[in-house]
Design brief:
758 residues; 24 helices; elongated
Length: 758
């Protein structure tokens, strides 16, 4: 920010980001055995770009169980569309995604996708590899509950006459593809497992990207390695919607697998479909017994839950790298027209995905649209519009209708800072976050040091100990008795020090600063690892210089008033030609010698820093710097209180976003953690869906208090990591990588949880 006499100029922040256009990812919820709605949805999706890659579930209670919840989370839908009797809010909370009800009067499914006929742009990949687009595909013209119609419709896709004519008359890149009737002309035996010859996979190749297989941050829910090499045929009765949906949804998860669905009613008629290398999939023992009789040589699997392991990154050729501009809480992105679906400006509705900046990462939940939505978007007028935190960044609803502008998409949206996002998050669960005086004290100390990068100066063990030692807090029993008798029996020295620090601030207790010469300081901060005396001294002097440059130590003169004998301190910045005693008021001369010795510079600690020490903020700074050393992209708040209405519920020492992981931290100096403190942390962490908890203190890892903390945490069976960071690790020049504990344990195929002593 630049200020001159006439105007205020705000320098906007720039950052790198990647934007991408892709279809809207949808999850449909329908009532049990509701074939009418299922068939309607399927017919609609077949006319959309990537329509086949949307999930459909029945409203069984199982939908709220962990396997399906994680399956949907891995799919990362933009919206959930509810055709069922289930409650919208219950679905939204479970899937952490905005739910749109199909029961409202103005609901229109066409507002949630891009029809094939709007895809008029020629993507670069297709120009380079034109054979990615098939020349001929097979399709059904209808779908019904009749086994034969279901078989052809689900496996080959659906193209009715009206949509066929519209596609052929459009400028779509698909208009010249020959679409033949599967019922009449297809050789089922040769094509049933060949996606390139099915209409429903018409966008599969041009939309494909890369797979994020082998992620160490995702549990592999497909350890049997199903749907990867051989042919897999789902088999059920034609009226078994549950099995049909297993087929449909697993095909979404494994979009390049060789899968098909066959009704039991057609087993005899289509017996040549099933070869010896075809694995048969069903959902119950009755069907399995039928299959064992007919196909004794084939592998048969009864599937009871969803298999999945990776996230597929589709439409990567529609990505665009750019520098984006942050203006206060607004960000502007631009996406070129040649990387959209339509070069004519009639592109339907899709998602603009923005990723690459840490600000875009936050645990997703259904209510964040309210925070992120552009101010000019009225939800009542535009109910389909959404902006959300996704697994990878920000995802925004875009309606591409600009026939007179082919320059691309320019989009602006709100992106509040971490503190504002966290406040909003807490408000949605009924709590209020408030800053405390400690918040500002810590912030000002970091400002003194010109940012977290320079905080390593105070996080050196020798300097940390020295700063604590010279802080003017000689706490005596008489002071405690006279001012705070209730603290006499307190076992926590940190608490007593904090209260006494407050008394010093308000003047009830006057504790003079300790005045030091450089000769007093050097032995305290010298690095014992340096053996050469001269090098050791030079290193220590450099540290003193840095402490002074950063205003941690104040530099001046200490001497006695020649009139009243008061002990005086004058900072270098306060010297004038004529100086006055601040006690007797007489003019004084700055002495050249004291006791016949030359008066060198004297140093004392900045009162702001001593206040920070009194309030335990040096320990908090030590933790924040430790987290910063893990990742320079951390975002955090410190020293906030949590209120339930007007009642103080708890407090937060530090809440940090480490990469895309959200954590709550409790900091202590020389004491362990009470059960009450741990309980409060766990309670709040569960409320806001934290990814980890961190306990930081300056005790040894072998301390009995730490051992008791570990035992108590084990008893609570906490399902997220609870890191315990102690003295040895906080001052380590090579801190351990916390992020490795967010990886899946390869031995158990589970995430790390419970106490982890670092």
């Amino acid at each position: 920010m630049v200020i001159n006499k006439y105007k205020l100029v705000i320098k906007m922040q720039e950052s790198f980001a990647t934007t991408k256009v892709r279809p809207i990812r949808k999850v449909f919820i329908i009532n049990e055995n509701d074939f009418c709605t299922f068939n309607m949805i399927v017919k609609h999706l077949m006319g959309e770009i990537d329509g086949i890659y949307n999930l459909i579930f029945e409203s069984f209670p199982i939908i709220f169980e962990s396997n399906i919840t994680e399956f949907v989370n891995r799919f990362d839908p933009d919206i959930v569309i509810n055709y069922s009797i289930l409650d919208d809010i219950a679905l939204a909370k479970n899937f952490k995604t905005e739910v749109h009800s199909a029961h409202v009067s103005d609901f229109n499914l066409f507002r949630y996708g891009s029809p094939l006929y709007t895809f008029t742009g020629m993507p670069y990949l297709l120009r380079k590899y034109p054979d990615l687009l098939p020349t001929k595909v097979y399709s059904s013209s209808n779908i019904s509950t009749e086994p034969n119609d279901l078989f052809f419709g689900l496996n080959y896709g659906i193209m009715n006459k009206k949509d066929y004519v519209r596609l052929k008359r459009s400028q779509s890149i698909f208009k010249d593809i020959l679409i033949e009737c599967a019922h009449k002309k297809v050789n089922i035996e040769d094509t049933i497992f060949d996606d390139q010859r099915k209409f429903c996979f018409i966008t599969n190749q041009i939309g494909s990207g890369h797979s994020t297989s082998g992620s160490v941050y995702a549990i592999n829910h497909n350890l049997p390695n199903l749907f990867e090499k051989d042919n897999f045929c789902f088999i059920s009765k034609a009226n078994d919607l549950n099995n049909i949906l297993f087929f449909w949804n697993e095909r979404v998860a494994f979009n390049h697998s060789k899968t098909a669905w066959l009704p039991i009613e057609l087993l005899d008629a289509e017996i040549n479909i099933i070869k010896d290398n075809t694995t048969l999939i069903c959902t119950n023992k009755t069907d399995a017994q039928t299959l064992e009789t007919k196909y004794p040589n084939n592998k048969i699997i009864i599937i009871k839950e969803y298999y999945f392991n990776v996230e597929s990154e589709r439409w990567s050729d529609f990505e665009h790298d750019q520098n984006i501009t942050f203006d206060k809480e607004k960000v502007v992105v631009r996406h070129p027209n040649e990387k959209t679906f339509s070069d004519t400006g009639f592109g339907g509705c899709y998602v603009l995905e923005i990723k690459g900046n840490n600000t875009f990462n936050y645990p997703k939940n259904y209510f964040f649209d309210e925070l992120l939505r552009a101010k000019n978007i009225d939800k009542k007028m535009f109910p389909t519009y959404f902006t959300r935190f996704s697994n990878k960044g920000i995802s925004r609803y875009v309606q591409h209708f600009s026939p007179f502008d082919t320059s691309g998409i320019t989009d602006a949206f709100n992106i509040p800072d971490f503190s504002s996002t966290l406040r909003f998050h807490f408000s949605k669960i009924g709590y209020t976050l408030k800053e405390t005086p400690k918040t500002f004290i810590l912030g000002q100390v970091i400002n003194l040091l010109k940012g977290l990068n320079n905080c390593k100066l105070l996080c050196d063990r020798k300097i940390y100990t020295f700063i604590n030692k010279i802080t003017p807090h000689n706490r005596t029993e008489s002071i405690i008795k006279s001012h705070l008798p209730e603290l006499l029996n307190s076992p926590h020295k940190d608490t007593i020090a904090s209260y006494l620090g407050k008394l010093n601030d308000i003047g009830d207790v006057v504790i003079p600063s300790k005045i030091l010469t450089i000769e007093n300081i050097l032995p305290e901060i010298s690095d014992n690892e340096i053996k050469n005396k001269e090098s050791k001294k030079e290193d220590a002097i450099l540290k003193v210089q840095q402490l002074y440059n950063n205003k941690i130590l104040l530099r001046g003169k200490n001497f006695t008033c020649e009139h009243c004998t008061a002990s005086l301190w004058f900072a270098l910045e306060d010297f004038s030609r004529i100086n006055y005693c601040n006690e007797c008021g007489n003019s004084i001369n700055i002495p050249i010698t004291t006791s016949n010795k030359s008066t060198g510079d004297h140093f004392k600690i900045n009162h702001l820093v001593s206040r920070a020490v009194d309030q335990g903020q040096l320990a908090t700074l030590l933790l924040i710097h430790y987290l910063y050393s893990q990742s320079t992209s951390i975002l955090y708040i410190a020293n906030y209180e949590i209120y339930d209405d007007s009642k103080l519920l708890s407090d937060i020492d530090v809440c940090v976003k480490l990469g895309n992981k959200l954590g709550l931290c409790e900091c202590k100096s020389k004491q362990s953690f009470s059960e009450k403190q741990i309980d409060e942390l766990v309670f709040i962490a569960n409320k806001i869906d934290c990814d980890f908890i961190l306990l930081s203190c300056l005790l040894s890892k072998n301390d009995d208090g730490i051992s008791r903390n570990i035992d108590y945490i084990k008893e609570k069976n906490i399902n997220i990591p609870v890191f315990i960071i102690t003295d040895e690790e906080l001052f380590s020049p090579t801190p351990k990588r916390l992020y490795s504990y967010f990886e899946v344990n390869h031995r158990t195929n589970k995430f790390h949880s419970g106490p982890i002593l670092i």
